[in-house]
Amino acid sequence: MEIQLSGISKQFGQFKALNNVGLNIQSGELLALLGPSGSGKTTLLRIIAGLENADIGSVYFDGVDMANTPLRERQIGFVFQHYALFKHMTLRENVSFGLRVKTRAFRRPAAAIRARADELLKLVQLGGLEDRYPHQLSGGQRQRVALARALAIDPKVLLLDEPFGALDAKVRKELRQWLRDLHQQTGVTTVFVTHDQEEALELADRVVIMQKGEIAQLGSVDQVYEQPASPLVFDFLGDSN
Ligand code: ADP
After folding, report:
1. What average pLDDT is seen over the chain?
2. Which amino acids bring their CB within 6 angstroms of ligand 1?
3. Which segments constitute the ABC transporter domain (predicted)?
């Protein structure tokens, strides 16, 4: 799925969160939105998802304006920093939930839903833990369940908002590598929000650097590092957080 953003602006009260953002996200790529806190990354992600409307501007999926497309038809998998798993449901039930929502109209048999949920849990390397509850897992494992659930709807687009932000450095590193591999297997167009440069560097095909609601630079990881587009980008990249 190719995503095109054209002239996106969004204001909260007097504050301009996004100012005339234009961006083409290529089909199948893994794009990182990188930038300091408050630069508009999450707002942009939420606008792509349809969770927030732009004041001005348009979002196109494969050339189709999403303005009149209901959320559930956008087929977007969304993963947040804090998992948002259902506590009272087993892992299998958590993943199945996405499948039921998607397939209600077709009445997919329960056995088929169960089999697909188990397959997805295997894909995120949690085979054998299907009957556990989220509180019995580590943070990294929970985030993998959240990913399995997001993948259950066969998303055309996967949006991740600081998905590893709550985890410790070692687990974050493991999950980066793992997400990279998973992305290669699934080939789903993926947009990944982070304020962690190392994360963007290791994961992304291309990086967008956001500053004060605008795109300060877009390019491959090498381009962005070798030729910062402005002193602001240079300063941001030089700041190791
Ligand atoms: P980032 O993800 O880069 O940290 P955000 O997109 O979350 O940045 O936020 C950009 C700015 O917009 C922030 O200053 C934030 O306070 C403001 N903002 C975001 N959402 C809202 C909202 N619903 N109401 C008011 N201000 C908001």
Report:
1. 90
2. 12, 15, 17, 35, 37-43
3. 3-237
